[in-house]
Amino acid sequence: MASIVALRMIKALVRLDWSVDRASGTSHHVLTKEGYRPITVPVKKGRTLKEGTARAILRQAGVSEDEFFETSRISSGGRTARRRGGSSMPSRTEANRALCIPPQ
């Protein structure tokens, strides 16, 4: 399993019909869903979840790794697609080059 940032995990679970019930400061978020026990996701700024912690959260949520990565790929797909040329807008570098006036 790849390294996962806690906020990416939370966003993917929200897309899978979980809701953030409460956030204890910024260190832990509690997610709830009808028919499931609450899940606590530890949030450490700038750090990834340990592999065992990420797997345990997915198991508690009843979500497979494949389902999680499919959902998280969709949630970040817009940014990824633009970097790979999926957008019709020019990149910042191309825009800067267009603004440069050639020397005379």
Describe what is shown at a glance.
This protein is α+β, with helices and mostly antiparallel strands and 104 residues long. Helix content is 45%, strand content 18%.
Furnish the topology, listing elements before pairings.
Blueprint: E1 4-5, H1 6-15, E2 19-24, E3 28-32, E4 39-42, E5 48-49, H2 51-61, H3 65-75, H4 77-83, H5 92-99
Antiparallel strand pairs: 1-5, 2-3, 3-4
Description of the structure:
The chain is of the alpha+beta class and 104 residues long. The chain has a single domain (4-87), classed as Hypothetical protein (Metal Transport, Frataxin, Chain A), CATH 3.30.920. The chain contains 5 helices and 5 strands, in the order βαββββαααα. A 3-stranded antiparallel sheet has the order 2-3-4. The longest helix is centred in the middle third of the chain and has 11 residues, at 51-61. The protein is globular and about 30 Å long. The protein starts with a strand and ends in a 5-residue tail after the last helix.
